[in-house]
Amino acid sequence: MKEKGSKSKETKQKILTVALRLFVEKGYEKSTMREIASQAQLAPGAAYYYFPSKDHIIFHYYTQCHEDHLDLADEILSKETSLEKRISGVVKANIQVAQPYHEISRILFKTAADPTHPLSPFSEQSRTLRDKDTAVFQQVIQGGDTRVPEQYIERLPRLLWLYKMGIVLYWIFDKSENQKMTFELIEQTSALIVKLIKISKLPVLQSLVNQMVTMIEYFVPK
Predict the structure, then answer these.
(1) Alpha carbon distance 96, 14 (integer Å)
(2) pLDDT digits (tens, 9 = 90+) for 102-116
(3) Residues 14, 96 share a domain
């Protein structure tokens, strides 16, 4: 039984590797499942058995990246108490996991940028991974050394997820060597986020900050 599971995992990884290469070479839309199966030395039916569509291949890739990111995030959160470093560490870990796939991420962005496409991070099909990512940021704020005002405890994880998506977008277009500008951006913006959390406790700014947060929540797709 274990051998069968291992073989299945190897086959899925082979299909994923071939598919990602083809997506880079030909583009996501022009690559076909039949071609992926052929280059993976599989019958089309065998490829469809593991992945009913190209979208399923990419969701498998997203899931793998999430699991790898979660391992790094857990390690960071188990040691770090500074909220600023917890935020920056978790977001940096996401970029580090994605770094070997910078080129394919740029290719996929052309498709995922369409808000109606299943691969969009805001799509209904992406909700499970979106919720898991948001849950990671719930852990981030729970163990931090900066107290988050009660009215933002449930709202902040989603805002941090949106922040991370903005960082990923910057990373996709970052042409600096090894995307070092992205990591500098994470450092500076993480510090700014914590400062905003702290000043949100000031009576004179509470109303303004709450208005800003409410506006973001209203206009960003759920």
Answers:
(1) 22
(2) 999 999 998 898 888
(3) no
